[in-house]
Predict the structure of Flagellar basal-body rod protein FlgC.
Amino acid sequence: MFDPLKATTRIASSGLEAQGARMRVVAQNLANSRSTGATPGADPYTRKTVQIAGQFDRMVGAELVAVKAVGTDATPFRVEHDPGNPAADAEGNVKYPNVDMTVEMADMREASRSYSANLQMIKQARSLVAMTIDLLRAG
């Protein structure tokens, strides 16, 4: 039997999980935004990306969201001339991660808002269940 309140909660829960994973990846990108390679000329940290996709759940009877894959960004690394840096190559250039702070902050904000919206859906579903129980008790 299809329970719309249970389905709503499950859909919102899948959104919470997906956006939580997205926020963790953004936090990791931000934490490593200035990491360099361990040896001179080595590649630094590579920005990670999250792919979120819908998938139909027969038990719920609705489309849920899930993390499809965590990949890497193919954008080239930033190169800065800093001959005193231990990660500098023979020409004095240092490779820095392909992490753009503005993009990461925008992703974090979007993920946070989506997370909050999904949490609000769960709160509303719980409220509807409580109101239904109250109505049944009164009747």
Summary: The CA atoms of residues 44 and 128 lie 50 Å apart.
